Amino acid sequence: MFKILEKVVLSPSVNLMKIEAPRVAGKARAGQFLILRVSECGERIPLTVADCDPERGTVTIVFLEVGKTTRLLGSLAAGDGILDVVGPLGNPTEIDSFGRVVCVGGGVGVACIYPICRAFKEAGNEVIGIVGARTKELLFWEDRLREAVNELLITTDDGSYVRQGFVTDVLREVAEREPPPDRVVAVGPLPMMRAVCGMTREFGLKTIVSLNPIMVDGIGMCGACRVTVGGRTRMACVEGPEFDGHEVDFAELAQRLRRYQDMEQESLARFLAECDGQC
Questions:
Q1: Residue 52 β-bridge partners
Q2: Domain 2-89 of CATH type 3.30.470.20
Q3: Domain spanning 100-258 has what CATH number?
Q4: How many CB atoms within 10 Å of residue 90?
Q5: How far, in Å, CA of 187 to CA of 141, rounded?
Q6: φ, ψ for residue 196 (rounded to 5)?
Q7: Tens of pLDDT along 218-266?
Q8: In the chain, ranges of CATH 2.40.30.10 domains
Q9: What does the alpha-carbon distance between residue 67 and residue 227 come to, in Å, rounded to a whole number?
Q10: Percent of the chain, pLDDT > 90?
């Protein structure tokens, strides 16, 4: 069992958990992920490492409660245990001194870009962070991100905080600056990453995205996480999760993500019925 040391509700349905996992914490790097299993009969789900503390032996995850497993995970509290925490998995973000780097985060992707922003800044880059959410109440980690970037730009779909619009609106303005960004990294919902790549393609900006296909084993054997990148089949768990966004077949990936949607909803409905909606 891996003990949950801390749990924080960041916004409606978004939770932070700090987990005791010293071996994982000692190896994790920006951009990598974990695979968790809450119980013996539970499914395995991938979650990005939002932060880690090698000295204290902890890893931090941030997740949105959307299905049965994330609802079950969200029902746990500090002091409870998680059966399996496997990682770090995947390749870390390529960190180098590129110059001006823009990191775009949407939804829980805000937590995912935090360690990436920090790593780029420590490598000597000028880091511009762009984060977006549907409403102000869904935004989190603003203070953390301000420490990890040189400039933080915020947008909300409904205009309830800072400015109304999408991250692509802000990114376009940054792309038109002189000098233009040397690299863009985007993490968030698939439609957001797809839109970011469509916009940066116009400016010829190198763009890296972190993909979130269905995963089972996390070691490239099951084939569930296959994606098409540059016309080739790639395994996101071992060859990713980050890829050149301009080469990703987003239409195929979206179709694959929808494949088990009905079964996922059915499983969630049964779970909520069993716990009488109190989970």
A1: 59
A2: no
A3: 3.40.50.80
A4: 27
A5: 15
A6: -60, -45
A7: 888 888 889 999 999 999 999 999 999 999 999 999 998 888 778 778 8
A8: 2-89
A9: 22
A10: 73
